Amino acid sequence: MTVxxxxxxxxxxxxxxxxxxxxxxxxxxxxxxIILGIPTRGVVLAQRIAENIQRIExxxxxxxxxxxxxxDVTMYRDDLxxxxxxxxxxxxxxxxxxxxxxxxxxxxxxxxxxxxxxLDALSDLGRPRAVRLAVLVDRGHxxxxxxxxxxxxxxxxxxxxxxxxxxxxIDGDEAVTIEDGLADTDTDAGTDTDTDTSAAPAEHGSEAxx
Length: 210
Known about the structure:
globular; alpha/beta; 8 strands
């Protein structure tokens, strides 16, 4: 098995800084903006983006708590029959999403199924004015017509490869790596778990099948 590092700490920081600027420019500031991370690593990335936005426009929001929250999609996923032991994570909103622009944040975008689940979860919470998607890594292989509005790194990959997103807050290390020769799984683990997300510790990166 070969493991290649494609993004290091500085690369991830730059990517998130750029995404933060792009979100501000797209939304023309922070008015009616809510940033929701998809557990697990998407929540960490959402928090970092909110902190960046507060530094970029310190007068826009009093605290990141006004911007950022978490959206659990576990019970909305279409793979529960194959992964029945998923443990739901708490959903927390900084306020009502009605009439707001919601930016979903995940670590890895893969099939698009995690994001579809996130959209279903949002529909039960309110009616946002618009929903955008920000991901650290887009690895392709979409199964649904879903695309990210803000991408840190487009990383074309083979289906047999695994994308691992490691974040200091969770993993004690910071990098994006590719492992060769592994079969894809629809897990929510840092990888793209259909995640490509980050549910499963192994597939760091989320989207979980995202």
